[in-house]
């Protein structure tokens, strides 16, 4: 009888830990939460099977109260703040300054465009996209389309002297 209680309590504690971990530490995975619910249900099922319906119902009620209390306490204590992301990403979306750039403007690639890379126009670097084939670094490019968030370029054909 003592062994059954050890098994039941162990399963309920492990299940509660997994459920709290799912909700507070690794939300969105659902695998850990489902496994926690399964372990908890297993502990409750063993209580019903081994101890009878009266003890099983008491274990079920105690488990619900215990799990809710643990979740409330976890949120109140701020334990999740230790693992929460605190830094900010200062990066911005490529905003195309319409006054500085225009369709037909030529520049030079400062990195390979495969198909995205960097090009320099009027002394400033911009993230650009090639609509055609890959463009090697150092080649001249021309702006063919301007969108609010991206610049589309194509390679300029080098004129050959005959």
From TrEMBL:
GO terms for cellular component: plasma membrane. Its main location: membrane. It is a multi-pass membrane protein. The chain crosses the membrane at residues 6-25, 32-49, 55-72. It holds the Pfam family NfeD. It comes from the Bacteria. Residues 102-144 form the NfeD-like C-terminal domain. This is NfeD-like C-terminal domain-containing protein. It comes from Fulvitalea axinellae. The lineage of its organism: Bacteria, Pseudomonadati, Bacteroidota, Cytophagia, Cytophagales.
């Amino acid at each position: 009888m003592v062994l059954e209680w050890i098994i039941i309590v162990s399963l309920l504690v492990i299940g509660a830990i997994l459920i709290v971990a799912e909700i507070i530490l690794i939300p969105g995975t659902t695998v850990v939460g489902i496994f926690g619910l399964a372990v908890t249900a297993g502990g409750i099922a063993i209580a019903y099977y081994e101890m009878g319906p009266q003890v099983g119902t008491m274990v079920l009620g105690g488990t619900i109260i215990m799990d809710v209390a643990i979740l409330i306490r976890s949120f109140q204590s701020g334990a999740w703040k230790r693992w929460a992301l605190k830094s900010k990403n200062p990066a911005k979306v490529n905003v195309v300054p319409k006054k500085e750039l225009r369709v037909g403007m030529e520049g030079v690639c400062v990195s390979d465009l495969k198909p995205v890379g960097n090009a320099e126009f009027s002394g400033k670097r911009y993230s650009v996209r090639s609509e055609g084939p890959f463009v090697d670094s150092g080649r001249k490019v021309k702006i063919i389309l301007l969108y609010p968030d991206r610049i589309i370029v194509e390679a300029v054909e080098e004129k050959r002297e005959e």
